[in-house]
Specification:
By secondary structure, the protein is of the alpha+beta class. It has a single domain, classed as Hotdog Thioesterase (Thiol Ester Dehydrase, Chain A, Roll), CATH 3.10.129.10. It has a seven-stranded antiparallel sheet, with helices on one face. β2 and β3 form a beta hairpin. The N and C termini lie far apart (43 Å).
Length: 135
Amino acid sequence: MPEGFLPRPVSGGFLKAVGPIYVKHENGRSIFGLLVEERHCNSKDICHGGMLATLADVVLGIGGMEQAGVSGFFVTVSLTNDFLAPAPLGAWIEARVELLRATRTTMFVQGIFTVEGEPVLRSSGVFRLPRPERP
């Protein structure tokens, strides 16, 4: 794992089962990471597309909320993934997330996932933001 990445705490049994997901902060933004383990792979020792989609769902939501300055529970409305290249067993995947737009209720986010600088996944998502707490 590259220097500066730390495990990101997650809640819920499912995310604990697929993680750990790592994060480091650089220039005011989070960069997310995942080390591809055997349990993440298909029968060809390549990270399963469902695992990549799960990673995209999690980090686009978390990264988008951080950039929007919002906290709480988000709901995925739509997630689109383009699988560009394989991520083999033992690969380190890095994800950079960009918040495109946020309204009061919804955010639009995209991300590029790379292995050794080469893109393996392009993802975009629409997420429902948590309702602000009322006083």
